[in-house]
Please model this.
Amino acid sequence: MLRNGLATFGNESNPKSHLFIITDLDVSKEKQDMIAEMQKNEPRVSFIVSEPCFEVWFLLHYDKSLCGIVTSDDAIRKLRRHLPNYEKNKSVFSLDKNFESLVEDAIKNSKQVLAKRENVESGCPATTVHQIVELLTKKKK
Model:
């Protein structure tokens, strides 16, 4: 699916076009290798990744400590401390009316977690979702 989307994108006549692919890293080694290869060979493609899963981004709205999360199930379990009725593919906005107001906290927390992870092998999960959120927020203004 990724390669097909990329082939279609590659036919774009606008050289300013940019493709963002959002993915979790709790995937097969084969998919991780394909992502790494695409990142090297496709300058107009950016991967927005969460390790181990997208729920890490949701957690960063409430907490910057992600240690102890190894699997997607761990992340969901921790997220349910803040959003007891959370289910995958269900809008978090309907579970917490203040969720949107916490986006700036999530961006700040995400950057801190990522910086710590890059500088020190912390063993903690991280996400780069803040990058696309900042870009879209800037475009919206």
Observations:
- Residues 2-140 form one domain.
